[in-house]
Amino acid sequence: MVGFVGSLSKGLGPGRRGIQTKMSASPVVLCPGQGAQSVGMGKAWKEKSKAAQKIFDRADAVLGDRLGSKLSDIIMNGPKSALDRTDVAQPAIFVTSIASWEGMKELELVAPGNPATAAGLSLGEYTALTVGGAVEFEAALELVALRGLAMQEASEAVDSTMCALVGADEEKATSCIEYALERCKGQVLVAANFNAPGQVVLSGSSEACNMAATYAADELKLRAVMLDVAGAFHSPLMAPAAARLGDALAGTSIEAPACPVLANVTGLPHEADPESIRNRLIEQLTNPTRWSDCMSYYKSNPDVTGEGDWIELAPGKTLTGIMKKCDRRRKVIGFDSPPE
């Protein structure tokens, strides 16, 4: 959820500075999560690609005015306060990511067919499953919209937050959690995101989270950053949202992915069994996302990633930045907007 922080083959001619704009091999597709949103995201794709425009139109047809306005209007015009709400940000990012993917295919910026593999951070896992052919766009959008709403409402029900510990490993994060919970009886605090080596995000009750941050900074000399989020994502406090998501997933058609798609909670490819995919998505709401493990899996399994380039879908460049900590030698090409 929280993202705190290869050359292309010859084809259509020069695009961005120093790269070509058409890939000869199937790419590794990385899909961003919540926090990547910004007002106006996807506008360049919408203007340059009819396929991207169609995705925004299809999203508006599905969601109507249930978010207060058409989703595309909020994405393009804001206000930021509306776009940043979890119930809006999640479908907005999902739609923008899929629009950029469809735009890339229409403009022949990627090799035809399925990607070599796909992975997404938290919310981005739904994008990855859609790109990988496991879920139809409209069905995935309904899931993402419900997920965002359920998480927003679960967040509003209890005083909770998240905190990034920069320079921490799992052992140090556990030390901070134990210190805080000994002093905040009956509260919740867990490690929620293992984004990259040296970056762990804690999630839980606000008092416990703040106490852990103080201990981390004062005693362990770590950099502790309180995050601007609605609540304690990927923690037991999201159990009500997980229950609602489970009901929705039970009624959603899911197929075996056409390419390996990584699961956040295991750091390994999803199984082909649709029920297993549903279970991993439910577990994701109350368990830590292990993006660092996902990238370690890719690094150890070049037969899965293949010879293609690694790309990050719109919006933003969050995962490109995180990759510098996971595997500094790995180049990721961002497609926040189409090549010029």
Keywords summarizing the entry:
340 residues, alpha/beta, Malonyl-Coenzyme A Acyl Carrier Protein, domain 2, 8 strands, 12% strand, Acyl_Trfase/lysoPLipase, Acyl_transferase_dom, transferase activity, Malonyl_transacylase_ACP-bd
Q: Can you give a write-up of this model?
A:
This protein has 340 residues and is an alpha/beta fold. The protein has 2 domains: 28-155 and 237-324, Malonyl-Coenzyme A Acyl Carrier Protein, domain 2 (3-Layer(aba) Sandwich); 159-231, Malonyl-CoA ACP transacylase, ACP-binding (Alpha-Beta Plaits, 2-Layer Sandwich). It is built from 14 helices and 8 strands. It has helices at 43-48, 50-63, 71-77, 80-83, 86-106, 124-131, 137-156, 170-183, 206-218, 239-250, 274-286, 291-300, 302-305, 318-326, and strands spanning 28-31, 117-120, 160-166, 189-196, 199-205, 223-226, 310-313, 332-335. The strands form 2 sheets. It has a 4-stranded parallel β-sheet, with helices on both faces. A 4-stranded antiparallel β-sheet has the order 4-5-3-6. α2 packs across α7 (137-156). The longest helix has 21 residues, at 86-106. It is globular. It starts with 27 loop residues before the first strand and ends in a 5-residue tail after the last strand.
